[in-house]
Design a protein that fits this description.
alpha+beta, L-fuculose-1-phosphate Aldolase, 7 helices, about 15% strand, globular
Length: about 200
């Protein structure tokens, strides 16, 4: 993965309506550093100069300012050796649940059980703050997608495509959940159905 991959994922996020304006940030882990989007960059229209190299303490190794959320990315990479890419955006439906401090945990379809089991909401803290990092990373120890209260969502993966697909699927889960609430009387999967899906997921791992 390199800067070109970050640029392409930024375009995909924009096309899918998963990012707006200058909100959000993307990073990848390299052998001994992190490539992350710069502060104020537009994810849907990134250029190579909008991506900066930092070390694992968040110090810029180039003469450009990294995203203000860089320490969240740094801490995730420190906590999760399996994570090679991090995407933070403000998707409309996931952010709506985050604003309501409402986790996505209803067993409404097989995909959300297999991919997520649930998507929790990290307690609110000021953007870019140390407290936001602490509140969020604690959930990412055993989750790959987490909403941040009154803020947005973050997805991690083994590569950029993996993280993107998780964000896209999580947003779809949020949309379907809202639609079922509008239509009314959703029929959740039974506990046996959930257990069978979890077993299927564990067999695939």
């Amino acid at each position: 993965m390199d800067k070109k991959d970050i640029i392409e994922i930024g375009k995909s996020l924009y096309k899918q309506g998963l990012t707006v304006g200058t909100s959000g940030n993307i990073s990848i882990r390299t052998d001994n550093s992190i490539l992350i989007t710069t502060t104020g960059s537009i994810l849907g229209n990134l250029k190579e100069e909008d991506i900066v190299l930092t070390d694992f303490e968040g110090q810029e190794l180039e003469n450009r300012k990294a995203s203000s959320e860089k320490m969240l990315h740094v801490e995730i990479y420190k906590q999760r050796s399996d994570v090679k890419a991090v995407i933070h955006t403000h998707p409309e439906y996931l952010t709506s649940f985050a604003v309501c401090h409402k986790a996505l945990n209803e067993p409404i379809m097989s995909e959300n059980i297999i991919y997520f089991e649930d998507i929790p909401v990290a307690e609110y803290a000021m953007p870019s703050s140390k407290q936001l990092v602490e509140n969020t990373v604690i959930f990412l120890k055993n989750r790959d997608v987490v909403m941040m209260a009154n803020h947005g969502a973050i997805a991690v993966g083994k590569d950029l495509t993996d993280a993107f697909l998780k964000m896209e699927t999580a947003e779809y889960y949020a949309k379907v959940t809202i639609n079922t609430q509008i239509i009314g009387n959703p029929r959740n999967l039974s506990q046996k159905d959930v257990n069978d899906l979890v077993n299927l997921k564990n067999k695939k791992l």
